[in-house]
Structure formats: C-alpha cells, structure tokens
C-alpha cells in the first residue's frame, strides 16, 4: 500500500515531521510512506484562488493517488496549526482530494495531552462536506512530551509507545482495505488523441504524422546525438549509451506524452514483425489517433479509457494480458503513468513483456510449480482490451489493475 504523510507543521524543526519520518522508517514493511510538507502552501484566501499553484497541485496529486493519508498534527492553542488548516481549506475549496480517502490522525506536542484537542478538531474538519474524508475511528495516537520522546536518531524511545503505534497502523491498513471498496472512481474526461493541446515540449513546425518526423523534428530543435553527453537525474550517459541501454531492455518500451503524441519506442527487435506490439519507425511522432487509425471506435474508447484513468489518478498503472498468444508467450502490457514535478500526469510509459520465460525460470530455479486456479486468466467484464499505445489487442476486459486488457500507446498492431 502507498500512503502519504502530511506534516501538519511549517516549522523547520518539527516533532510531527520526526514522527512521520519514524513511521516511514520503522514500519516500511507494512506500507510505503511518502512524507509531504505544507511549508510552501500559501495562506488560504477565497478571493485569490491558488488551487493551481505548484504546492497545492503537488499535494492534490499526491493525495489523490495515495491509498491512504496519515496526518501528523501539532497542537497550537488547543487546535491544529494555521498552516494545516489553510492547507485543508485549499484542498476542500476547488479541489477535493480527500473525498472518500482513508485518513489516519496522529500527533506530537510538548504537553501531556499530546494533541488530543487538536485531533478532535481535525477529525471534525475532515468530516466537513467539502473535505469528506474517511477518518479512521477509534484509534488515537497521541505523543505527549515530544521533546523527550525521541532519541538522537529520531526513533521513539518507549517500546510500548512504538508497539501501540504499530497496532494503530495495522488497524489503519485494514481500514484502508475495507474503505477502498467504497471508493468512487473519478469521472474520465474525453481524451484528445489528435494532439490538439500542445504542451511545453511539443515540437511545432513539423506534422506529427510525417513519416520523417524524427529527423525533421530533431533538426528543428538541434537535438544532440552520438557521443554527446546527457546529464540525467542519477547518471551521465551519451546518447549512444542511452540507446544501447534502452535497446538492451528485455521488453518493448514506448513513450507517449501528455499531449497523446507517440514519441519513442526501443526497437530492440529490428524486425517489427517479431515484436509483441508491432511498431515501425515512421510512426514515431504520430498522433495517437493515427497510431490507432485501424482500431474500431469501441477500441479507441478503450485507449481513451486507459489514458484518462492514468491522467485523473484513478490508477497509477493499467495491466493487461493479451489473450490468444501462443503457448510460449504470456503477452503482458503495463501502462504506467509518468508525472511532472508537481505530480500531474505527464504521459505513459508502456512496457510490453513476455512474462513466460521469466515465470518458467522462476519456477525452475525455486522448484515451485503453479497449482490451482481455473486455468488461463479470464478477463473480467468491463472494458475490452485496448492497446493504448500499440493497439496490439483483442477482446477482453478490464475492471482494475489486474487482468485488464488495454493498450495505451504502442501503435502499429495487427488490427
Ligand atoms: C502558539 C503556540 C501554541 C501552542 N499551544 C499548544 C497547546 O495548546 N497544546 C500543546 O500541547 N502544545 C502547544 N504548543 C507547543 C507545541 O506542542 C509545540 O510547539 C510542538 O512542537 C509543535 O509541533 P511541531 O514541532 O511539529 O511544530 C504551542 C506552541 C505554540 C507556538
């Protein structure tokens, strides 16, 4: 499970931040926790809507995609901090990321009552119609005497306190499992598959559907190539090295951007006919509508569904198993959302992968075998199989992350 933790303090030194960091480290096997700050969130002002500002959007996107939220609230004058209240105002004004979201409250403060009064207030705020969170009932983790509670490594000293915190968190994990059943998916807005909404990286001056788009567009932007170095977040590689690296991936990779433009694939196979989701060089740069030009309208709807689902945060990825593959092939497609620094949707990274050799290797190496089940995966009812990038698809279904049959961006397929 993926949770986010909100530090309810904007102070540089915060016991509530320490508490969340401790939870993140100490309980890392129970769930993944990303700690979020509210320091840069502006003071709420109804007359100056800053819902689209970076700090508000960042929180909105992170909360929207999290399975649950843990808020660590300080207590100031028997209530929450103005910074936390202001943040909750922005997140209940024009944006509503807490709607039906499981939330757990914890808190640390100087005095014996350990934020009990602030927690009562926060619980009420979270219950307001504009917030509408599902706050975990019956569990109060109150860390009093916060100054003495942590050791020099930021760990809670008292073992009994840690054990109690663990119990509360276990309850939250169970609660999230139950409450997630009540989640109402956000409506999916129609997608423009014709690339009609250029983004800052869209290269204008060459038609996306031009078969020579790659060379023409590269020339327009003076793209580097060959042995020129590219500085990456965690590395420094030449363009040639990047190509070698990507082409050596034991799966087919595709990149389609936020404007639904098909920008890249790693042609490790040379012969498009041998690809699991066939792509050809002239497709690079294409509009998604062109990539999927041969798909019937119903399947185009599925392409839109995959993209819309990732864009609005209902899911971080969509996985499909393409039915009708030969016995030695388990043709899996994984559509993973990519994100801009503010956490909003930046496009799709698609991995098309034959899972069978890896599965066989695993079974042989571990001496295990597959047992039970009702045979080859029967896709649940719902959306038919799409190929959001490639179109390599067939009939099937979708209802959640598992077993759906969708393909968002690979493109030149056999349809
Ligand atoms: C204006 C102000 C009011 C406070 N009121 C309370 C209070 O009502 N109850 C309490 O336990 N601590 C109170 N404190 C002390 C906080 O518990 C302490 O500042 C705590 O460290 C805040 O959490 P943080 O370290 O995460 O910022 C107050 C502190 C300030 C600055």
Automatic annotation (TrEMBL):
Compositional bias per record (Polar residues), positions renumbered to this chain: 400-415
Task: Tell me which SUPFAM superfamilies the record gives.
Answer: Flavoproteins (SSF52218)
Q: Which residues form a coiled coil?
A: none
Q: Which residues form the NADPH-dependent FMN reductase-like domain?
A: 1-147
Q: Which domain of life is it from?
A: Bacteria
Q: Which InterPro entries match?
A: Flavoprotein-like_sf (IPR029039), FMN_Rdtase-like_dom (IPR005025), NAD(P)H-dep_reductase (IPR050712)
Protein name (record): DUF438 domain-containing protein
């Amino acid at each position: 499970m993926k949770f986010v933790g909100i530090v309810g303090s904007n102070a540089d030194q915060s016991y509530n931040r320490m508490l969340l960091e401790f939870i993140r480290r100490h309980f890392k096997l129970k769930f993944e926790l990303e700690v979020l700050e509210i320091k840069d969130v502006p003071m709420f002002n109804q007359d100056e809507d800053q819902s689209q500002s970076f700090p508000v959007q960042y929180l909105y996107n992170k909360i929207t995609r999290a399975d649950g939220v843990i808020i660590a609230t300080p207590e100031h004058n028997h209530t929450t901090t103005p910074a936390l209240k202001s943040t909750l105002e922005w997140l209940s004004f024009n944006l509503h990321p807490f709607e039906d979201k499981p939330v757990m409250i914890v808190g640390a403060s100087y005095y014996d009552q350990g934020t009990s009064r602030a927690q009562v207030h926060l619980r009420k705020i979270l219950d307001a119609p504009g917030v509408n969170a599902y706050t975990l009932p019956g569990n109060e983790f109150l860390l009093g005497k916060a100054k003495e509670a942590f050791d020099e490594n930021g760990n809670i000293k008292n073992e009994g306190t840690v054990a109690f915190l663990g119990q509360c968190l276990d309850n939250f994990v169970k609660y999230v499992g139950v409450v997630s059943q009540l989640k109402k998916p956000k409506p999916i807005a129609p997608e423009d598959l014709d690339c009609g909404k250029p983004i800052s990286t869209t290269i204008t001056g060459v038609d996306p559907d031009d078969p020579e788009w790659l060379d023409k567009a590269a020339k327009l932007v003076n793209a580097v190539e060959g042995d020129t170095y590219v500085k990456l977040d965690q590395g420094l590689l030449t363009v040639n090295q990047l190509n070698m690296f990507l082409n050596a991936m034991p799966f087919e990779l595709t990149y389609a951007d936020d404007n639904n433009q098909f920008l890249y694939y790693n042609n490790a196979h040379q012969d498009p006919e041998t690809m699991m989701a066939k792509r050809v060089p002239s497709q690079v740069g294409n509009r998604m509508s062109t990539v999927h030009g041969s798909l019937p309208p119903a399947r185009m709807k599925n392409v839109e569904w995959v993209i819309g689902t990732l864009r609005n945060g209902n899911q971080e990825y969509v996985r499909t198993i393409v039915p009708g593959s030969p016995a030695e092939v388990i043709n899996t497609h994984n559509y993973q959302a990519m994100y801009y620094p503010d956490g909003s949707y930046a496009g799709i990274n698609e991995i098309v992968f034959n899972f069978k050799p890896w599965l066989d290797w695993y079974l042989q190496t571990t001496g295990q075998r597959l047992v039970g089940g009702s045979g080859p995966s029967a896709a649940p009812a719902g959306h038919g199989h799409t190929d959001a990038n490639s179109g390599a698809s067939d009939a099937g279904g979708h209802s959640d992350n598992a077993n759906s049959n969708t393909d968002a961006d690979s493109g030149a397929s056999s349809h």
